[in-house]
Amino acid sequence: MPLAELHTDRIEGREEDARLLALETTEILDSEPEPSYDTITRLTAEYFKADTVLLGFADESRMWIKSYWGESVRELPRKGSVFELVLAADGPVVAPDVSKHPCFAGNGLTIRRLEVGSFASAPIRSGDGKILGALTVFGCKPRREMAAEELHMLESLADLVTSQLELRKMRRTFGKCRPQNARAPNALAGNWPRKSDLRHALDNREFVLFYQPEVELSTRKIVGLEALIRWQHPERGLIQPMDFIPLAEESGLILPIGDWGLSEACNQIQLWCRENPVEGAPRVCVNLSARQFAREGLADHVEALLRRSGIASRQLGLEMTESSLISDEDTALKVLTSLRRLGVSLLMDDFGTGYSSLHQLHLLPFNVLKIDRSFVARITEGNDQPLQIVRTIVELARVLGMDVVAEGIETEEQYALLLQLGCKFGQGFLFSRPVPANTISEMLRLPGRILPEQATSAVVPN
Predict the structure, then answer these.
(1) CB of 198 within 8 A of CB of 252?
(2) Res. 457 pLDDT band, cuts 50 70 90
(3) Are 62 and 76 in contact (CB under 8 A)?
(4) Which of 98, 120, 150, 191 keeps 20 to 30 A from 323, CA to CA?
Protein backbone atom coordinates (compact mmCIF):
# COMPACT_ATOMS: atom_id res chain seq x y z
CA MET A 1 0.00 0.00 0.00
CA PRO A 2 1.40 3.43 -0.92
CA LEU A 3 2.53 5.55 2.05
CA ALA A 4 0.00 8.29 1.24
CA GLU A 5 -2.89 5.81 1.38
CA LEU A 6 -1.53 4.25 4.58
CA HIS A 7 -1.28 7.69 6.16
CA THR A 8 -4.85 8.50 5.10
CA ASP A 9 -6.13 5.22 6.53
CA ARG A 10 -4.42 5.91 9.85
CA ILE A 11 -5.95 9.37 10.06
CA GLU A 12 -9.40 8.02 9.22
CA GLY A 13 -8.91 5.25 11.80
CA ARG A 14 -8.06 7.75 14.52
CA GLU A 15 -11.07 9.88 13.57
CA GLU A 16 -13.36 6.86 13.72
CA ASP A 17 -11.91 5.85 17.11
CA ALA A 18 -12.59 9.36 18.41
CA ARG A 19 -16.11 9.27 16.99
CA LEU A 20 -16.85 5.91 18.63
CA LEU A 21 -15.44 7.15 21.93
CA ALA A 22 -17.73 10.19 21.76
CA LEU A 23 -20.67 7.86 21.03
CA GLU A 24 -19.76 5.62 23.96
CA THR A 25 -19.56 8.64 26.27
CA THR A 26 -23.19 9.52 25.56
CA GLU A 27 -24.35 6.04 26.67
CA ILE A 28 -27.21 6.57 24.21
CA LEU A 29 -27.17 3.09 22.67
CA ASP A 30 -27.83 1.45 26.04
CA SER A 31 -30.49 3.92 27.20
CA GLU A 32 -34.19 3.28 27.59
CA PRO A 33 -36.61 4.82 25.03
CA GLU A 34 -37.06 8.53 25.69
CA PRO A 35 -40.17 10.53 24.69
CA SER A 36 -37.99 13.48 23.71
CA TYR A 37 -36.67 11.65 20.65
CA ASP A 38 -40.20 10.68 19.58
CA THR A 39 -41.08 14.36 19.85
CA ILE A 40 -38.25 15.23 17.46
CA THR A 41 -39.25 12.66 14.85
CA ARG A 42 -42.88 13.75 15.12
CA LEU A 43 -41.96 17.43 14.70
CA THR A 44 -39.79 16.52 11.70
CA ALA A 45 -42.52 14.44 10.07
CA GLU A 46 -45.10 17.17 10.56
CA TYR A 47 -42.85 19.90 9.16
CA PHE A 48 -41.73 17.97 6.07
CA LYS A 49 -44.96 15.95 5.60
CA ALA A 50 -42.68 12.92 5.46
CA ASP A 51 -43.60 9.27 4.99
CA THR A 52 -40.87 8.06 7.32
CA VAL A 53 -38.42 9.78 9.67
CA LEU A 54 -35.55 7.92 11.30
CA LEU A 55 -33.36 9.12 14.15
CA GLY A 56 -30.40 6.84 14.69
CA PHE A 57 -26.84 6.48 15.94
CA ALA A 58 -24.12 4.43 14.25
CA ASP A 59 -21.50 2.21 15.87
CA GLU A 60 -18.89 0.20 13.93
CA SER A 61 -21.35 -1.80 11.85
CA ARG A 62 -24.96 -0.86 12.56
CA MET A 63 -27.27 2.11 12.48
CA TRP A 64 -29.34 1.83 15.67
CA ILE A 65 -32.70 3.59 15.38
CA LYS A 66 -33.68 5.32 18.62
CA SER A 67 -36.92 6.78 17.25
CA TYR A 68 -38.95 6.60 14.06
CA TRP A 69 -42.05 8.07 12.50
CA GLY A 70 -43.92 6.00 9.93
CA GLU A 71 -42.43 2.63 9.17
CA SER A 72 -41.05 0.78 12.18
CA VAL A 73 -37.27 0.37 11.88
CA ARG A 74 -34.99 -0.91 14.65
CA GLU A 75 -31.61 -1.21 12.99
CA LEU A 76 -29.93 -0.95 9.59
CA PRO A 77 -26.54 -2.03 8.25
CA ARG A 78 -24.15 0.88 8.37
CA LYS A 79 -22.40 0.00 5.13
CA GLY A 80 -23.95 1.89 2.23
CA SER A 81 -26.39 3.66 4.53
CA VAL A 82 -27.41 7.32 4.47
CA PHE A 83 -25.26 7.74 7.58
CA GLU A 84 -22.14 6.92 5.56
CA LEU A 85 -23.08 9.64 3.08
CA VAL A 86 -23.58 12.15 5.90
CA LEU A 87 -20.28 11.14 7.51
CA ALA A 88 -18.41 11.47 4.21
CA ALA A 89 -19.97 14.86 3.52
CA ASP A 90 -19.41 16.01 7.11
CA GLY A 91 -22.81 17.64 6.82
CA PRO A 92 -26.32 17.27 5.45
CA VAL A 93 -27.09 15.19 2.35
CA VAL A 94 -30.12 15.74 0.11
CA ALA A 95 -31.42 13.62 -2.76
CA PRO A 96 -34.71 14.94 -4.22
CA ASP A 97 -34.79 11.86 -6.49
CA VAL A 98 -32.73 8.84 -5.47
CA SER A 99 -32.85 7.46 -9.00
CA LYS A 100 -30.47 10.30 -9.92
CA HIS A 101 -28.27 9.96 -6.86
CA PRO A 102 -24.93 8.29 -7.70
CA CYS A 103 -25.10 5.95 -4.71
CA PHE A 104 -28.59 4.71 -5.56
CA ALA A 105 -28.91 5.22 -9.30
CA GLY A 106 -30.79 2.31 -10.81
CA ASN A 107 -31.27 0.65 -7.45
CA GLY A 108 -33.67 2.81 -5.47
CA LEU A 109 -33.33 2.92 -1.73
CA THR A 110 -35.23 0.24 0.15
CA ILE A 111 -35.82 0.28 3.87
CA ARG A 112 -37.64 -2.96 4.54
CA ARG A 113 -40.85 -2.59 2.52
CA LEU A 114 -40.61 1.16 1.94
CA GLU A 115 -39.57 2.21 -1.56
CA VAL A 116 -38.15 5.67 -1.07
CA GLY A 117 -38.11 8.25 -3.83
CA SER A 118 -36.30 11.02 -1.94
CA PHE A 119 -34.40 11.63 1.27
CA ALA A 120 -32.68 14.35 3.22
CA SER A 121 -30.43 13.69 6.18
CA ALA A 122 -28.62 15.93 8.69
CA PRO A 123 -25.86 14.87 11.09
CA ILE A 124 -26.40 14.42 14.80
CA ARG A 125 -23.22 15.55 16.48
CA SER A 126 -21.64 15.29 19.90
CA GLY A 127 -20.93 18.42 21.89
CA ASP A 128 -17.42 18.56 20.38
CA GLY A 129 -18.66 18.11 16.81
CA LYS A 130 -18.23 14.36 16.20
CA ILE A 131 -20.93 12.89 13.95
CA LEU A 132 -22.74 10.23 15.99
CA GLY A 133 -25.84 9.64 13.90
CA ALA A 134 -28.31 11.16 11.52
CA LEU A 135 -31.85 12.50 11.38
CA THR A 136 -33.28 11.41 8.05
CA VAL A 137 -36.50 12.30 6.23
CA PHE A 138 -37.81 9.88 3.61
CA GLY A 139 -40.53 10.38 1.03
CA CYS A 140 -42.13 7.77 -1.24
CA LYS A 141 -42.06 10.10 -4.23
CA PRO A 142 -39.39 12.35 -5.70
CA ARG A 143 -39.82 15.93 -4.55
CA ARG A 144 -38.56 19.32 -5.55
CA GLU A 145 -35.17 20.56 -4.40
CA MET A 146 -35.05 21.31 -0.68
CA ALA A 147 -35.11 25.04 -0.03
CA ALA A 148 -32.35 26.57 2.10
CA GLU A 149 -34.75 27.33 4.97
CA GLU A 150 -35.99 23.72 4.92
CA LEU A 151 -32.44 22.38 5.11
CA HIS A 152 -31.70 24.80 7.95
CA MET A 153 -34.78 23.52 9.79
CA LEU A 154 -33.66 19.91 9.35
CA GLU A 155 -30.25 20.81 10.77
CA SER A 156 -31.91 22.63 13.67
CA LEU A 157 -34.03 19.59 14.44
CA ALA A 158 -30.90 17.44 14.37
CA ASP A 159 -29.28 19.97 16.71
CA LEU A 160 -32.17 19.33 19.12
CA VAL A 161 -30.96 15.74 19.37
CA THR A 162 -27.51 17.07 20.26
CA SER A 163 -29.21 19.26 22.85
CA GLN A 164 -30.86 16.22 24.40
CA LEU A 165 -27.53 14.37 24.50
CA GLU A 166 -25.91 17.31 26.26
CA LEU A 167 -28.81 17.59 28.71
CA ARG A 168 -28.47 13.88 29.54
CA LYS A 169 -24.77 14.41 30.20
CA MET A 170 -25.54 17.55 32.18
CA ARG A 171 -28.03 15.75 34.40
CA ARG A 172 -25.47 13.06 35.18
CA THR A 173 -22.89 15.69 36.06
CA PHE A 174 -24.92 18.37 37.83
CA GLY A 175 -28.42 16.95 38.33
CA LYS A 176 -27.85 16.01 41.94
CA CYS A 177 -25.69 18.95 42.89
CA ARG A 178 -28.41 20.62 44.97
CA PRO A 179 -30.73 18.60 47.22
CA GLN A 180 -34.36 19.66 47.06
CA ASN A 181 -36.24 20.92 50.11
CA ALA A 182 -33.16 20.75 52.28
CA ARG A 183 -32.24 23.34 54.84
CA ALA A 184 -29.56 25.67 53.55
CA PRO A 185 -26.10 25.06 55.07
CA ASN A 186 -25.93 28.66 56.30
CA ALA A 187 -29.39 28.64 57.90
CA LEU A 188 -29.63 30.47 61.20
CA ALA A 189 -28.40 28.47 64.15
CA GLY A 190 -30.60 26.80 66.73
CA ASN A 191 -34.32 26.17 66.41
CA TRP A 192 -35.09 29.57 64.97
CA PRO A 193 -37.15 30.26 62.99
CA ARG A 194 -40.12 28.18 64.05
CA LYS A 195 -43.49 27.91 62.37
CA SER A 196 -44.94 30.37 64.86
CA ASP A 197 -42.23 32.90 63.90
CA LEU A 198 -43.25 32.68 60.26
CA ARG A 199 -46.91 33.04 61.16
CA HIS A 200 -46.09 36.11 63.26
CA ALA A 201 -44.05 37.60 60.40
CA LEU A 202 -46.93 37.09 57.98
CA ASP A 203 -49.50 38.59 60.34
CA ASN A 204 -47.27 41.61 61.05
CA ARG A 205 -46.31 42.23 57.41
CA GLU A 206 -42.61 41.68 58.00
CA PHE A 207 -42.08 40.11 54.59
CA VAL A 208 -40.97 42.40 51.76
CA LEU A 209 -40.29 41.95 48.05
CA PHE A 210 -37.00 42.92 46.48
CA TYR A 211 -36.68 43.03 42.69
CA GLN A 212 -33.80 42.10 40.40
CA PRO A 213 -33.81 43.51 36.86
CA GLU A 214 -33.74 41.28 33.79
CA VAL A 215 -32.02 43.11 30.94
CA GLU A 216 -31.72 42.84 27.18
CA LEU A 217 -28.04 41.94 26.93
CA SER A 218 -27.34 43.84 23.72
CA THR A 219 -28.59 47.15 25.19
CA ARG A 220 -28.72 46.68 29.01
CA LYS A 221 -32.32 47.86 28.86
CA ILE A 222 -34.56 46.68 31.71
CA VAL A 223 -37.17 44.34 30.17
CA GLY A 224 -38.36 42.53 33.28
CA LEU A 225 -38.01 42.09 37.02
CA GLU A 226 -37.87 39.04 39.26
CA ALA A 227 -39.64 39.44 42.61
CA LEU A 228 -37.64 37.91 45.46
CA ILE A 229 -38.96 37.66 49.02
CA ARG A 230 -37.02 38.85 52.07
CA TRP A 231 -37.89 38.88 55.76
CA GLN A 232 -37.36 42.26 57.41
CA HIS A 233 -37.14 41.10 61.02
CA PRO A 234 -37.41 43.92 63.60
CA GLU A 235 -34.48 42.56 65.64
CA ARG A 236 -32.48 40.26 63.37
CA GLY A 237 -32.50 42.53 60.31
CA LEU A 238 -32.91 41.45 56.70
CA ILE A 239 -33.15 37.65 56.43
CA GLN A 240 -32.48 35.86 53.15
CA PRO A 241 -35.06 33.38 51.78
CA MET A 242 -32.74 30.38 52.10
CA ASP A 243 -33.05 30.80 55.86
CA PHE A 244 -36.83 30.53 56.05
CA ILE A 245 -38.36 29.26 52.78
CA PRO A 246 -37.48 25.57 53.46
CA LEU A 247 -39.39 25.77 56.77
CA ALA A 248 -42.27 27.54 55.03
CA GLU A 249 -42.47 24.69 52.52
CA GLU A 250 -42.28 22.00 55.20
CA SER A 251 -44.91 23.65 57.40
CA GLY A 252 -47.36 24.51 54.61
CA LEU A 253 -47.08 28.25 55.29
CA ILE A 254 -45.62 28.65 51.82
CA LEU A 255 -49.22 28.87 50.55
CA PRO A 256 -50.27 32.04 52.46
CA ILE A 257 -46.77 33.50 52.05
CA GLY A 258 -46.89 32.78 48.33
CA ASP A 259 -50.37 34.31 48.04
CA TRP A 260 -49.08 37.42 49.76
CA GLY A 261 -46.13 37.60 47.35
CA LEU A 262 -48.35 37.33 44.28
CA SER A 263 -50.71 39.99 45.57
CA GLU A 264 -47.88 42.33 46.58
CA ALA A 265 -46.23 41.99 43.16
CA CYS A 266 -49.51 42.83 41.37
CA ASN A 267 -50.00 45.88 43.60
CA GLN A 268 -46.45 47.04 42.88
CA ILE A 269 -46.96 46.63 39.13
CA GLN A 270 -50.05 48.82 39.44
CA LEU A 271 -48.03 51.47 41.28
CA TRP A 272 -45.24 51.48 38.68
CA CYS A 273 -47.85 51.82 35.93
CA ARG A 274 -49.14 54.95 37.66
CA GLU A 275 -45.62 56.32 38.02
CA ASN A 276 -44.84 55.57 34.36
CA PRO A 277 -48.07 56.19 32.44
CA VAL A 278 -46.33 56.13 29.04
CA GLU A 279 -44.13 53.02 29.30
CA GLY A 280 -45.94 51.27 32.14
CA ALA A 281 -44.23 48.61 34.24
CA PRO A 282 -41.97 45.88 32.90
CA ARG A 283 -43.02 42.28 33.39
CA VAL A 284 -42.63 41.15 36.99
CA CYS A 285 -41.97 37.45 37.56
CA VAL A 286 -42.99 35.72 40.78
CA ASN A 287 -41.71 32.32 41.88
CA LEU A 288 -44.32 29.62 42.52
CA SER A 289 -43.63 26.79 44.94
CA ALA A 290 -44.60 23.20 44.29
CA ARG A 291 -47.47 23.49 46.78
CA GLN A 292 -48.84 26.59 45.07
CA PHE A 293 -48.63 24.95 41.68
CA ALA A 294 -50.41 21.81 42.86
CA ARG A 295 -53.26 23.70 44.53
CA GLU A 296 -56.76 23.63 43.05
CA GLY A 297 -57.91 26.81 41.37
CA LEU A 298 -54.49 28.41 40.81
CA ALA A 299 -55.54 30.01 37.51
CA ASP A 300 -58.74 31.39 39.08
CA HIS A 301 -56.70 32.91 41.91
CA VAL A 302 -54.27 34.56 39.47
CA GLU A 303 -57.14 35.87 37.35
CA ALA A 304 -58.80 37.40 40.43
CA LEU A 305 -55.55 39.18 41.36
CA LEU A 306 -55.19 40.56 37.83
CA ARG A 307 -58.75 41.87 37.86
CA ARG A 308 -58.44 43.39 41.33
CA SER A 309 -55.18 45.19 40.56
CA GLY A 310 -56.24 46.20 37.05
CA ILE A 311 -52.91 45.26 35.48
CA ALA A 312 -52.40 43.62 32.09
CA SER A 313 -51.73 39.88 32.20
CA ARG A 314 -48.60 40.33 30.04
CA GLN A 315 -47.06 42.27 32.96
CA LEU A 316 -47.06 39.18 35.19
CA GLY A 317 -44.79 36.16 34.87
CA LEU A 318 -44.85 32.97 36.92
CA GLU A 319 -41.62 31.08 37.51
CA MET A 320 -41.48 27.39 38.36
CA THR A 321 -38.50 25.13 38.83
CA GLU A 322 -38.43 21.76 37.12
CA SER A 323 -38.79 20.02 40.48
CA SER A 324 -41.95 21.98 41.35
CA LEU A 325 -43.95 20.68 38.39
CA ILE A 326 -46.73 18.23 39.11
CA SER A 327 -45.57 14.69 38.35
CA ASP A 328 -48.92 13.99 36.69
CA GLU A 329 -48.25 15.27 33.18
CA ASP A 330 -51.92 15.68 32.27
CA THR A 331 -52.64 17.75 35.37
CA ALA A 332 -49.52 19.89 34.82
CA LEU A 333 -50.59 20.55 31.24
CA LYS A 334 -54.09 21.52 32.37
CA VAL A 335 -52.83 23.94 35.03
CA LEU A 336 -50.21 25.56 32.79
CA THR A 337 -52.58 25.85 29.84
CA SER A 338 -55.16 27.59 32.01
CA LEU A 339 -52.49 30.06 33.16
CA ARG A 340 -51.29 30.72 29.61
CA ARG A 341 -54.87 31.43 28.53
CA LEU A 342 -54.84 34.33 30.96
CA GLY A 343 -51.91 35.79 29.02
CA VAL A 344 -49.27 35.53 31.77
CA SER A 345 -45.75 34.39 30.93
CA LEU A 346 -44.57 31.00 32.17
CA LEU A 347 -40.88 30.66 32.97
CA MET A 348 -38.99 27.47 33.77
CA ASP A 349 -36.49 28.53 36.41
CA ASP A 350 -33.08 26.97 37.15
CA PHE A 351 -33.27 25.09 33.86
CA GLY A 352 -30.75 22.27 33.56
CA THR A 353 -30.55 21.20 37.19
CA GLY A 354 -33.59 18.89 37.03
CA TYR A 355 -34.88 16.35 34.56
CA SER A 356 -36.75 18.28 31.88
CA SER A 357 -36.69 16.88 28.38
CA LEU A 358 -37.60 18.22 24.98
CA HIS A 359 -40.80 16.19 25.25
CA GLN A 360 -41.78 18.08 28.40
CA LEU A 361 -40.82 21.46 26.97
CA HIS A 362 -42.70 20.75 23.74
CA LEU A 363 -45.78 19.56 25.60
CA LEU A 364 -45.99 22.17 28.38
CA PRO A 365 -46.65 25.79 27.37
CA PHE A 366 -43.59 27.50 28.85
CA ASN A 367 -42.36 30.48 26.88
CA VAL A 368 -39.14 31.33 28.76
CA LEU A 369 -36.20 29.20 29.94
CA LYS A 370 -33.92 30.53 32.67
CA ILE A 371 -30.40 29.08 32.59
CA ASP A 372 -29.31 28.15 36.08
CA ARG A 373 -26.57 30.34 37.55
CA SER A 374 -24.35 27.33 38.27
CA PHE A 375 -23.72 26.93 34.53
CA VAL A 376 -23.25 30.64 33.87
CA ALA A 377 -20.66 30.82 36.67
CA ARG A 378 -18.57 28.07 35.02
CA ILE A 379 -18.53 29.23 31.40
CA THR A 380 -15.29 31.20 31.84
CA GLU A 381 -13.42 28.61 33.90
CA GLY A 382 -11.74 26.91 30.95
CA ASN A 383 -13.89 23.77 31.15
CA ASP A 384 -15.72 23.40 27.85
CA GLN A 385 -18.70 21.46 29.22
CA PRO A 386 -20.53 24.34 30.98
CA LEU A 387 -20.03 26.52 27.89
CA GLN A 388 -21.45 23.76 25.69
CA ILE A 389 -24.39 23.30 28.07
CA VAL A 390 -25.30 26.99 27.85
CA ARG A 391 -24.90 26.94 24.06
CA THR A 392 -27.18 23.89 23.95
CA ILE A 393 -29.90 25.52 26.05
CA VAL A 394 -29.80 28.72 23.97
CA GLU A 395 -30.18 26.68 20.77
CA LEU A 396 -32.92 24.54 22.32
CA ALA A 397 -34.88 27.66 23.23
CA ARG A 398 -34.38 29.15 19.76
CA VAL A 399 -35.72 26.11 17.94
CA LEU A 400 -38.71 25.91 20.29
CA GLY A 401 -39.46 29.60 19.85
CA MET A 402 -38.81 30.39 23.51
CA ASP A 403 -36.94 33.25 25.14
CA VAL A 404 -33.95 32.42 27.32
CA VAL A 405 -32.67 34.33 30.36
CA ALA A 406 -29.21 33.64 31.81
CA GLU A 407 -29.13 33.95 35.60
CA GLY A 408 -26.20 34.92 37.77
CA ILE A 409 -24.16 37.09 35.38
CA GLU A 410 -21.42 38.61 37.51
CA THR A 411 -18.50 39.45 35.19
CA GLU A 412 -17.98 41.25 31.90
CA GLU A 413 -16.37 38.08 30.53
CA GLN A 414 -19.51 36.04 31.20
CA TYR A 415 -21.57 38.84 29.69
CA ALA A 416 -19.49 38.90 26.49
CA LEU A 417 -19.59 35.11 26.12
CA LEU A 418 -23.37 34.98 26.53
CA LEU A 419 -23.76 37.63 23.83
CA GLN A 420 -21.56 35.54 21.52
CA LEU A 421 -23.72 32.48 22.22
CA GLY A 422 -26.84 34.38 21.14
CA CYS A 423 -28.42 34.69 24.59
CA LYS A 424 -30.73 37.72 24.47
CA PHE A 425 -31.61 38.29 28.10
CA GLY A 426 -29.91 38.03 31.47
CA GLN A 427 -29.80 39.08 35.10
CA GLY A 428 -27.14 39.16 37.75
CA PHE A 429 -24.97 41.29 40.02
CA LEU A 430 -23.18 42.75 36.97
CA PHE A 431 -26.35 44.73 36.29
CA SER A 432 -27.96 44.94 39.74
CA ARG A 433 -28.43 43.04 42.95
CA PRO A 434 -32.00 42.47 44.16
CA VAL A 435 -33.12 45.86 45.46
CA PRO A 436 -36.20 47.41 47.11
CA ALA A 437 -39.10 48.68 45.00
CA ASN A 438 -38.18 52.34 45.47
CA THR A 439 -34.74 51.71 43.94
CA ILE A 440 -36.39 50.02 40.97
CA SER A 441 -38.55 53.14 40.60
CA GLU A 442 -35.33 55.15 40.19
CA MET A 443 -34.04 52.70 37.58
CA LEU A 444 -37.27 52.90 35.60
CA ARG A 445 -36.76 56.65 35.33
CA LEU A 446 -33.35 56.22 33.65
CA PRO A 447 -33.31 57.31 29.95
CA GLY A 448 -34.55 54.38 27.91
CA ARG A 449 -34.49 52.30 31.11
CA ILE A 450 -30.92 51.44 30.15
CA LEU A 451 -28.67 50.53 33.06
CA PRO A 452 -25.22 52.14 32.98
CA GLU A 453 -22.09 50.00 32.66
CA GLN A 454 -21.57 50.15 36.40
CA ALA A 455 -25.24 49.89 37.31
CA THR A 456 -24.69 48.28 40.70
CA SER A 457 -22.42 51.03 42.00
CA ALA A 458 -24.06 53.93 40.13
CA VAL A 459 -27.71 53.27 40.93
CA VAL A 460 -27.89 50.63 43.62
CA PRO A 461 -26.78 51.36 47.17
CA ASN A 462 -24.33 48.85 48.63
Answers:
(1) no
(2) very low
(3) yes
(4) 191
